[in-house]
Amino acid sequence: MTRKDLQALAITRLAESKALLRAHHPSGAYYLAGYSVECALKACIAKRTVRYEFPDKKRVDASYTHNLTELVRIAGLDQLREARVREDADFFDNWQIVQQWNERSRYDSFTSDRAKRLIVAIESRRTGVLLWLKRHW
Question: Which of 123, 95, 94 is nearest to 32 (CA)?
Fold first, then answer.
């Protein structure tokens, strides 16, 4: 899977989550919205992968996680995220909402309001997490 594939997947999963929310399936919408952030973070990791360089095994193995905070670290974005969180309260709020997502969300039930809050935190035009990630992928 290429970086471009992961970028496209991030956008597609977010669009699918919005369609599920419109169709009154908030639990699926919540899960796919969070998964879009995971794909975006993995695109950021792929960007840091040097062509023709043998990858570090620990970094590769660590990349196969669903933990968004860990993926931020592996992507080398932790200090940039911390700086953005300190300077922008709205981004801080959005990150707080996004980081509550995890892969076990696929087994949980969520309200439409909770799914909508996650989608807005991801796609907000000024302070959305996906907008910020796009600058680094």
Answer: 123
